[in-house]
Structure formats: structure tokens, C-alpha cells
């Protein structure tokens, strides 16, 4: 299993939750109208897709529904999957063309961000890159300690502050 395949597997819980919420919402509608798109856009924003991306997704869906003459709300999910797949398809390589490069790792709790950071740090170090980890999740109990363990395993330095401190400090 490749590196990005592992990340995809770790995000399965989040994906399943979002998919379930969208399916439930779509089943509540009997026709495709502006209310459906507004509700979908709201769900996407609450799922941390971001306002611009949620708007782009809904605008594309509106256009495709019109182009294809779709009237059944249950067909929206297939279209949604098509649109999102097109948006995220492409290059899966990590491009670190700038010096220094910064990799920001974000996601919901429990999906393996810290583990991924540790493995990524180790991999980049083995490739001869200079790696420094920055602990910014200082409000979660043991977050710094967990990242310290991964920094030690990868033999890379870590920048940290005390637990509960302002992450920007």
C-alpha cells in the first residue's frame, strides 16, 4: 500500500460521515431546487470543504443537472462524486520546489495526522532533506509528547511550546 493510499484509508471515517449526511439530506428532498443546493453547500462548508470550494462544487452540479436534464435528487450523489473526483484527481506527488518548503497537515481528530507527519519526516530525511517538525496542536493532551516521539524516531528536530500555550507562540 502506497503512502497516499494509507492517508486515504485513514480518512475513511470522515468520508463515510460526510457521505452519510449528504445522502440523508438528499433523501429528504423530492425535487431538485435551490433549497437542495443551499443545503448541500451548507453541509459541504460544515465538512470543512471551504466556502469557495463548496460554491464551486454546487455551481458545477447546477450546470450538470441542467445539461443532463436530471430531476431526481437521488442522482445528485453520483454527480457530486463525479465533480469531486475531477477536482481532486491529478498529481499525487509531493512537490517541495521552494526553500524552505512548509507542509501543513490538517484534519479531524483520530485520522492519523501525527503518525503521518512522523512517517513523512522520516521519509524526507532519508531522501536527504533537512526536516524540522513544528508542534502547533498544543491544546490536545499529549499532542506535543506524541510528536516528540515521532521526531526522535525520524531523528529530526522539533520546535515546541508548553502544552496549552498559544499555537502561534
CATH homologous superfamily title of the largest domain: SRP54, nucleotide-binding domain
Question: Number of helical runs?
Answer: 7
Shape: elongated
Biggest sheet, in brief? 2 strands, parallel
Helix content: 55-70%
Description:
The protein is mainly α. It has two domains: 86 residues, Up-down Bundle (Four Helix Bundle (Hemerythrin (Met), subunit A)), CATH 1.20.120.140; 76 residues, P-loop containing nucleotide triphosphate hydrolases (Rossmann fold). It contains seven helices and two strands. It has a two-stranded parallel sheet. Helix 7 links the parallel strand 1 and strand 2. The longest helix is centred in the middle third of the chain and has 18 residues.
Structure at a glance:
The chain is mainly alpha-helical and 169 residues long. The protein contains 7 helices and 2 strands; from the N terminus they run ααααααβαβ.
Write the layout of secondary structure elements.
Elements: H1 3-10, H2 12-27, H3 34-46, H4 51-68, H5 76-88, H6 113-126, E1 133-134, H7 143-154, E2 158-159
Parallel strand pairs: 1-2
Helix pairs in contact: 2-3, 3-4, 4-5, 6-7
